[in-house]
Amino acid sequence: MRYITFLFLIITFGIAQIQYGGIPNYQSDNKSIKFITTENLDIIDRDLHPMVLKYADEYYVDINFLTEATKVINIYETTFYLGIESKGAKALAFVFDDFNLTENSEMFIYSEDESMYIGAFNSKNNNPSGELATAVVKGDRVIVELTVPNHEIDELSLNMGTILHDFLDLMNFHEDDHNNRVDCNDNVACSSANNWEDQVDATVLVSSNGGVCSATLVNNTEFDQTPYIAYAAHCNSGGSSTIYFNYQSNSCNGNNPGNYNTMSGTQNLAIGNFNNNDYALIRLYNNIPSSYNAYYAGWNRTTSSPGNNIVGVHHPDGGIKKIAYDAYGMSSSGNWWDFAYSSGRVSPGSSGSGMFDSSGRLRGMASYIYTNYCNPFPDCYCAQNYYHGYAKFSSAWNYFDNYLDPNNENPIYIDGTRYGNVFGCTDPAADNYDPDANVDDGSCEYSGNANFAFGSISGDNIQVIMNNDVPVAGFQFTITDTPNLVTLNGASGGSAENAGFQVSTSDLGIVIGFSLTGSTIPAGNAVLTNLSYSFDGSGNSEVCFDDVTASDSDANPLVVNTGACQEIDFSGSATFSFGTTTDNSIEVLYSSSSEIAGFQFTLTDNPDLITLTGASGGSAEDLGFEVSTSDLGIVIGFSFTGSTIPSGEGILTVLEFDSNSSGSTEVCIDETVVSDSSGSALLSSGDCSDLDILDVILGDINSDANINIQDVVILINFILGSAVPEGNQLYAADLNSDGILNVQDVVILIGLILE
Description:
By secondary structure, this protein is mainly β.
């Protein structure tokens, strides 16, 4: 007869049961603590599978902690004490169905003899689900202690929903050899677990609703330590759960665990049907603390056989962590792998545990056990021909992939990680390949080298030198300067142009060069390119290379180095700005540290309201400069006689314009070019200003489209001071455009009327 046993795990919603340190107050002799007993309470019937390893009876309670507990009150805070008794229990655990602690409150749970406690629990343990499932505490009389500032009492709520009576001594507090009942398995501290330490640290014990099982932490393609857990679908039947990490002996022959850690609370993500595909994936709400030394196992989703060199890491009979290894009779049966271990066996408590292939990657989750002759069942777990069924990871992949491969990278397998993302060089062909890295950080180095340095720098050109020992198929770098005064305008010449490279620049200082034909810059030491630039301001600036990379013809990055930064003196400079504006003219002012032999700029306006019609006056006209304008806004000034505008400041010229509409526009002096008498460029810059274009008829002071005696009356009132011009009135009344309202304007206005 073939017996099939489904091993059990229960996981549902809760919160991370991370304990935050501290020491309980404990009760004193004069405290009379109220105890609530499980006597006469009904045991909750969970209708668990017959082969679930049941370690505890569950009693339903509805205990409002704040009203039932004994209170000790002082000026600043109140401590609540409530005792729980369940006679004959090896240990007690609890599920709080309403757990909401305040910022400064702390809860501890400890045995009556004060030999063991867990906590502190605080507001960091709160969760929207409102639940907290605790680990077991030794003894049949346990005290729950809560201390809270008096002003926060009204803000918290704490209600106990379930008491778990541990009759098996799950954590072996009483050393009854519970942890070694399935003695055909090796402890994970034995030599048989050598080289499987990662898989050991990926395996956890899960307790819920009085039952226990095993599960595996699994990695995802982000390598970001998201706490995903893979196990079996038949294990998921509801209830708050507690997960035990590192529940294992520190010696090969030991029966009791060393230090272990706990968390509570998971979210169901993908749950199959154990009759067809016994898979499940959940995740902890909270991240696992680094002190837990957790490992996130890699996985392989292929359908090929995992072979015979395999291991299973599990908690048989709910005991300390064990290892089984080497398969015989490996076969595929639908969505399961069927085989027997050469050493070690699974048992209730092992369900959901991982089976790992020779590369240490997860290939299946423990689903069922069977034997042809074991009678009575299940008293012969260590017998030969004791076969196991593991749900295939490959069969579960279509349900796991949204979580374990969030970016649809679609790998066949990934390795595990202990520390999340490990940055480094992931290219095996690189000189500095890091086999432990799982995220490439761009640090790979190769035998080819390309060194970049500055050559000569003039007032408008920066020469870039490259010394490369292999042909270069592409390059990129950023020119930075401090302070931020340099703007690149283009690149030309050098070995890049000779090789037919396209070299582009941006105003962010980025320079990119490559060939569309596949040509390369030969090895050597030469001028790479010449960068043209403009300078906004005056003084000194330090220019440097940044973010430099170069590639050979096989797209392999080269090892790049840069020369020293260069200090550039930009003491020769000229700036242009705006002076007085009228309804048809704009003064352009200059300030120059050197004589000006020629200038050029473009006047822009936004929105486009004006068109240049000419230029006159200023130092340019006084010194015999020819100043020309175009309807594109370009202004050029120079001297046929070689005269110059001396250093200093003043009015450069006055630009005349026509307006095509009224309104406000921003005018700017852009694309400035200034030359000294030797033909060298001065560093130059322009300015911007707002200009109001008014649609005004001279003489129509009241804007009624008529020029008559009413306008005369208004003008006289302005002159006498009995009225003040508003808006456009000043421009309409100043008929001779001298900026002054007087009798001259009256004479011109009357003349207009008489005409």
